[in-house]
Design goal:
The protein contains 12 helices and 10 strands. It is of the alpha/beta class and 364 residues long.
Length: 364
């Protein structure tokens, strides 16, 4: 089955008119797999080798036969030349039969790398859009790439399968893309980055996972339940994920959301997560909180229900001895939380996100 993805943006998940004004989706058709498990196949064996791209061959790290005089002329001690800034678009991180490859692709924005032996920290970005619209290459992502590259960080923007864009309950196809497809894909993208980013000049042991709205939910879920990463990476090291930035979502506890959700909001959540409370629990980051030793940053805005979701998640994180900081974004809209990150002149989001990365995340 194919589902079209619009180019409209996403202000928030509570109002349809607001939702479709925020994120820019990619064009093209969405081909959905015949069936999707109700809960994540976290205990299933690794996919066959043809379900994920072969790792990029690692360059030589030096010539043991080189004489001392030769080594003095090398660009750095491991015999890797400096790398120029570049963008590599539409890199395939996973292959699943029947799925448009664009949904399993990512864009890599690299700054100039003077010491590829050490590599630069890596920021992975997960776009929002109510789990049904949005794209890795929208303008906001490009602005973020420029900002984080200026800070000396690699920026990786990822796509993932999207649930169909719906307007009423009659459009809820039982075979649609839905949970756990979204976090399975984000987890596979993180796994690919960890296994391959070194060849691009990135440091695989310094990764930040950031997201906005639906992407904030997915980033939080994958960071807290790292089995999504381990599905395609059996040697994954949790210490490689240094920090989580989850910016403006109320989906930390989906069971709580569904108690009061009505209208478009309820429809969007049903579209993404179905109707089973057990599945809602499996999709809720708050149920998987543990101490990974990572720094965590959240953004607070919106109504009292949104505040309660954030405070409960923050409390659960702190009970597990996680370090949590919160940006006060009450003065801006849901859309602006996303749009301001990395935007020149912004004083509400960008300074706090930048300091969080440089000090709490990569400064250790």
């Amino acid at each position: 089955m194919k589902t079209g993805v619009s180019k409209r943006g996403f202000l928030g998940i509570t109002l349809l008119s607001t939702l479709l004004a925020s994120a820019c989706s990619s064009d093209g058709n969405l081909i959905q797999k015949p069936t999707a498990p109700a809960v994540p196949p976290l205990s299933s064996p690794r996919p066959d080798s043809n379900t994920s791209p072969a790792p990029i061959a690692q360059p030589r790290t030096g010539d043991a036969s080189a004489q001392p005089s030769d080594r003095e002329n090398l660009p750095n001690s491991c015999n890797k030349p400096a790398l120029s800034a570049k963008k590599t678009a539409n890199v395939q991180y996973q292959n699943i039969s029947g799925v448009d490859p664009k949904f399993h692709s990512l864009d890599i924005y690299m700054p100039a790398v003077t010491n590829p032996c050490e590599g630069v920290p890596v920021v992975i970005w997960v776009h929002g859009g109510a789990w049904m619209i949005g794209d890795k290459s929208n303008l906001d992502s490009q602005i973020k790439a420029t900002h984080f590259n200026t800070m000396g960080y690699a920026f990786v923007s990822v796509n993932y399968r999207l649930s169909p864009e719906v307007r009423d309950e009659s459009q809820l196809d039982p075979n649609r893309v839905k949970f756990p497809d979204h976090p399975n894909d984000v987890g596979a993208a993180v796994a690919w980055v960890h296994k391959n980013i070194k060849d691009q000049g990135g440091n695989p042991d310094k990764i930040a996972l950031l997201g906005h709205s639906a992407g904030a939910h997915l980033a939080a879920l994958v960071a807290m339940d790292q089995r999504y990463i381990e599905r395609t990476h059996t040697t994954w090291n949790p210490k490689a994920l240094r920090c989580l930035g989850s910016y403006d979502t109320e989906a930390y506890n989906i069971n709580e959301v569904m108690l009061s959700a009505v209208g478009p909001q309820r429809l969007f959540y049903r579209n993404a997560f179905g109707d089973l409370p057990a599945v809602w629990s499996a999709a809720s980051p708050i149920n998987f909180v543990r101490d990974y030793g990572m720094a965590i940053q959240l953004a607070k805005r919106g109504d009292s229900g949104r505040h309660a979701q954030l405070e409960n998640f923050k409390r659960a994180l702190e009970e597990k001895k996680n370090s949590v900081s919160v940006i006060n974004a009450q003065s801006i809209s849901h859309e602006e939380v996303n749009r301001f990150i990395g935007a020149p002149g912004d004083q509400i989001m960008t300074p706090f996100v930048s300091t969080f990365l440089s000090q709490s995340c990569f400064g250790k």
